[in-house]
Write a structure and sequence with these properties.
single chain; 303 residues; alpha/beta; TIM Barrel; eight-stranded parallel barrel; 8 strands; FAD
């Protein structure tokens, strides 16, 4: 049943017609509980509240299905504006970006120009860019662009997904680069990805531990308290300084656990999405955990 649910919502996340329609709905279907507004100005107050509670933020301007050059340029301009606003308000927030939003599926060189402009602007402000990893079809391109950026900018990192078989190998190849380790939210072939939760969880810990032992900054992105406890114990046993890693969770989920980690003295960052293109992101959150469907229904009928 869980696999059926995951496949169903993964399918819906890729439906361009529904994505287009969702822009007219506003933040319906409970999305307002996990998406911090339709523009960066809406999201700023959320960021300030999280900062006041001791939590750092990474801000994601949502967007998918970018098929025209002008859309990609608009996304880049919106990213520059977002960096400006973050700087003007003095909040503690980095910027997460998807390369497809910047034109990866249109023209890779165009995408490289756009992500370079964002990295440059962020470097001026002393801020950081995190490149979100997307589906496996874009994996190699993403890593190639990351390596090129790192030749000029040291304020850029990326995400690796533990459901991919190659995860530990890539962790070692990216030693010294800040990494956000996640389980993964896309439907991938058994040829490249683990299909069982236990395998994904085991590999998640292996990847986190490998990056920590590489003395590289590690973001542990999970809502699973058992995995979090395992990481805490590993860090203590191996004398990993707390300033070398942080825990991350999504905005709107496990707020009590987020705050408890802050209270224990761990670095913590909340992943905060915003924007009109919220539909695909929200569907993938429903795909990840069947419990999130109930969460969404509560959001619909509590308005």
């Amino acid at each position: 049943m869980q696999n059926i649910s995951r496949n169903f919502f993964s399918y819906l996340s890729k439906n361009k017609l529904l994505n287009k329609s969702a822009k007219r709905w506003g933040l319906q279907l409970g999305a307002s509980k996990v998406v911090a507004g339709l523009n960066v100005e809406n999201a700023i107050e959320t960021i300030k509240d999280l900062n006041d509670s001791g939590r750092m933020v990474t801000l994601d301007h949502l967007g998918e299905f970018v098929n025209e050059e002008q859309e990609a340029r608009d996304a880049m301009e919106a990213g520059l504006h977002t960096l400006d606003v973050l700087h003007e308000h003095g909040v503690h927030s980095t910027l997460s970006v998807k390369l497809t939003k910047l034109g990866l599926d249109i023209d890779e060189n165009l995408c490289r120009q756009h992500i370079s402009a964002l990295a440059h602007q962020a470097s001026i402000y002393g801020n950081e860019i995190n490149i979100d990893m997307e589906d496996y079809a874009r994996y190699e391109q993403t890593l190639s662009i990351l390596h090129s950026l790192r030749e000029q900018y040291d304020n850029v990192g990326t995400v690796l997904q533990s459901y991919l078989h190659r995860g530990v190998d890539d962790v070692h190849a990216l030693a010294g680069i800040p990494l956000r380790i996640v389980k993964g939210a896309y439907k991938e072939s058994p040829a490249v990805a683990y299909q069982k939760k236990d395998d994904v969880d085991r590999h998640f810990l292996q990847m986190v531990e490998a990056h920590m032992l590489n003395e590289s900054y590690t973001a542990i992105a999970t809502h699973d308290h058992e995995l979090i406890d395992e990481v805490k114990a590993f860090a203590a046993r191996n004398h990993i300084p707390r300033e070398m890693f942080e825990f991350q969770m999504l905005y709107g989920f496990r707020n009590d656990l987020q705050q408890s980690l802050v209270n224990e003295g761990y670095r913590f960052r909340t992943y905060v999405p915003f924007g009109r293109d919220w539909y695909g992101y929200f569907m993938r959150r429903l795909a990840e955990r069947p419990q999130n469907v109930t969460f969404a229904l509560r959001g619909m009928f509590s308005k």
